[in-house]
Task: inverse folding
């Protein structure tokens, strides 16, 4: 199973678990999207529907995970991602079932009878808005700046062709020419991740709290605490993502080599193939046209070869259809004819 | 300041918004110079029509409690420490107070209970510290009664 398929498979139980525990983090007075009075938060139907929702979503999560694993083993590496929308749709269906049953009981028993609905707004949000924790942005920016610094120092020594992508998105063996864009692609990814999540958090900070009319002050305090913790966690996550991108960039820039490369170098045996093994033809710049001349000499059998290479060439000539063999012409005759040619 | 309204209550919503803002100014929770949310923002927060909030703000502006500015938005113009009100306003308020107290008396509420309610209400207001219990506006209105 490829890393991409493995990541796609892990997404299925992750989203399943997230949707499974979603009702546990909602407000007690809003269950499955149904607003209920505070004195009805312990109603029997709510507990029953929460347990039923948990069971249903757990079954959906297990089935979808099994399906994703089967698709990853027998299908392409991205086919397990098709399971995620199916899983989310099934979980939303479970939520709607629970919502409909709670709403039915709420209407039948007239939970809001005798209560006056009240709407509360906090006008102090304008004068005293929650402050965005800018200092939690410093680690992410520091990691990005360090990546830029290392990249600038390493750029002149980088080979002419660089590995394309990283992690699960790496195309095996695919390399791209060295340009500032390809060399600093991971720096751009760091900037993109940092800017995206910071913008999202700033937009969330502009949102207003959903205030409980029964205790508005406590609900506003809870929302301010939620915003502070959520933004702190998100910016810490951004720092970790930037750090992982820094490690990937260091590997792509050949600042370090993975285990296996050193062992292979010392023992001389192939062993475990290192990810960052530098191709021999990338160590020195090739003269233009040199490869073409060497190929012509090899084809015309005029270039002096090492014993092993000559043996390989002879072996190839004995096997029809391989390089060095031409149908309808004897190699000895072709070689004799070639000896009369003047090759510059 | 928490501004609460009852959408299904007997009092019109614009009147409820106006009353809550007046109570916040009197209680010191919204002092002179402090800003209020824009009409659109407050309408979104309360889930009411934009014109409803606009009507409340316009009412407060005509009463001299609010100043509406294109740049600074809605700002509280005066509070308990801003000096005595205009004589016209005091006269109008006295007439309304008479009606309100008459309602209590007509319903059989004893005079002591009416006065106790008035004292309890006044105790929650934020008068200036140096003139507490002897606010100029309060004295003018009471002394001006026939």
Result:
């Amino acid at each position: 199973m490829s890393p991409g398929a493995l990541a796609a498979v892990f997404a299925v139980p992750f989203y399943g678990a997230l949707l499974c525990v979603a009702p546990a983090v909602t407000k007690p007075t809003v269950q499955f999207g149904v607003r209920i009075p505070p004195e009805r938060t312990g109603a029997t139907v709510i507990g029953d529907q929460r347990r039923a929702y948990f069971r249903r979503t757990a079954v959906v999560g297990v089935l979808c995970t099994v399906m994703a694993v089967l698709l990853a083993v027998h299908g392409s590496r991205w086919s397990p991602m098709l399971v995620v929308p199916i899983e989310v749709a099934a979980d939303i269906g479970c939520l709607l079932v629970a919502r409909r049953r709670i709403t039915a009981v709420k209407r039948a028993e007239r939970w809001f009878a005798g209560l006056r609905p009240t709407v509360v707004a906090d006008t102090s949000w304008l004068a005293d808005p929650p402050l965005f924790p800018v200092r939690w942005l410093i680690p992410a920016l520091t990691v990005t700046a360090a990546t830029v610094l290392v990249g600038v120092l390493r750029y002149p020594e980088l080979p002419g062709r660089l590995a394309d992508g990283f992690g699960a998105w790496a195309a095996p063996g695919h390399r791209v020419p060295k340009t500032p864009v390809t060399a600093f692609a991971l720096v751009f990814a760091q900037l993109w991740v940092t800017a995206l999540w910071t913008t999202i958090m700033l937009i969330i900070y502009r949102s207003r709290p959903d205030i409980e009319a029964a205790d508005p002050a406590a609900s506003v305090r809870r929302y301010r605490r939620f915003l502070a913790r959520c933004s702190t966690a998100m910016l810490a996550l951004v720092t970790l993502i930037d750090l992982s991108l820094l490690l990937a960039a260091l590997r792509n820039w050949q600042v370090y080599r993975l285990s296996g490369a050193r062992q292979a170098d010392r023992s001389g045996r192939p062993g475990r193939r290192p990810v960052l093994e530098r191709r021999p033809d990338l160590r020195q710049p090739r003269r233009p046209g040199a490869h073409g001349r060497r190929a012509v000499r090899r084809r015309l059998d005029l270039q002096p070869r090492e014993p092993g290479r000559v043996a390989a060439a002879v072996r190839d000539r004995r096997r029809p259809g391989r390089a060095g063999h031409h149908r309808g012409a004897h190699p000895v005759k072709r070689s004799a004819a070639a000896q009369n040619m003047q090759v510059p | 300041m928490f501004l609460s309204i009852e959408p299904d209550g007997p009092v019109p919503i614009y009147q409820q918004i106006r009353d809550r803002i007046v109570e916040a100014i009197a209680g010191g929770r919204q002092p002179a110079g402090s800003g209020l949310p824009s009409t659109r923002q407050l309408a979104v927060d309360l889930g009411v029509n934009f014109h409803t909030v606009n009507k409340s703000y316009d009412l407060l502006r005509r009463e001299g409690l609010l100043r509406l500015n294109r740049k600074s938005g809605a700002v509280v113009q005066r509070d308990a420490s801003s000096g005595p009100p205009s004589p016209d306003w005091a006269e109008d308020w006295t007439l309304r107070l008479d009606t309100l107290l008459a309602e209590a008396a007509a319903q059989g509420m004893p005079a002591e209970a009416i006065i106790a309610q008035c004292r309890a209400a006044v105790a929650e207001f934020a008068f200036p510290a140096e003139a507490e219990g002897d606010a100029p506006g309060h004295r003018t209105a009471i002394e001006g009664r026939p």
Observations:
- The two ends of chain B are 37 Å apart (CA to CA).
- Chain B touches chain A through 22 residues (CB under 8 Å).
